[in-house]
Design goal:
By secondary structure, the protein is of the alpha/beta class. The chain contains 14 helices and nine strands. The chain has a five-stranded parallel beta sheet with strand order 2-3-6-1-7, sandwiched between helices. It has a two-stranded antiparallel ribbon with strand order 4-5. A hairpin with a 2-residue loop joins strand 4 and strand 5. The chain is elongated and about 65 Å long.
Length: 320
Amino acid sequence: MYDGFYNLSRKPFQLNSDSDFFFKSEVHKRALAYMRYGITQGEGFIVITGKPGTGKTMLIKQLVNSINREKVTLGLIVSSQVGADDLLRVVATTLNVPYEGEDKATLLDRLERFLVDQALKGKRVLMIVDEAQNLPKTSLEELRMLSNFERSGKTLLQIFLVGQKQFSKTLALPEMEQLRQRVVATYQLKSLNEEQTKNYILFRLKRAGWQDSPQFEEDAFPLIFHHSRGVPRKINTLCERVMMFGFLDELQVLDRTVIQKVIDDIHEEEAIEAEDMPNNAAVALGRTGSGNLEQRVVALEKLLAELHQVLSTHHNGLKP
């Protein structure tokens, strides 16, 4: 639609993590450097954290594309609430280690033999866990135990843990002391500043074949930064809406007035959605302010958890 109207080769602000659109901000270059440094060490845990939308998955894709598969065997897990025993099966599946309902001891033995076999072939094994904040502490402990496998004094399995900011709080717990001792490096992704936000937008436009159509006026960028707070995913969401607005109104110039109109539309839609929710949900969302979607989602998740607990208690009370 708008990409044809503006003679673009593709949509510049799509939300999927396309490595062609990897923006090498100072923050992301440093995070990638930490990850590559970790690979050279060949042992321990590397921990990367950041708020939702700051580009963690994009970083993983960029790293994966640069890994020499002749020297490194790679496994990638997008985690959920996976228990310790299930985690071992997920690891085995990811590394293509066959198993047929074996008990835990047998599965561990299979995994160790696989890691040793890779080492004999001159290859190291790297496991990347995305959304690591979803892993229970027991599963993190299981990963730590897997990192204990060694041969001739060399670690057979290296693990990268990539997750949201709250994952740092999990690692700080007293019971995570042994895992923390295995962390080789850690880095927290931060949002873009105002200048980086502008450069990010222009970079993505140029990657999509942009020839100054539409033209972004200078006064548009500070407003985009203020609304998005420099979070790449939020920048993409807003700019996608702006480009569509420009297409529908056949605009060749996008200025502060256009950006503000789109932002107002977004706020209006969010207010309508809040009105359509149950009263308690609307109140919970309202406490965080209509402009911060991330906080509102967290508030809603908290409310749903409370409702689930109430329903469970009521259900248990009905049992004979």
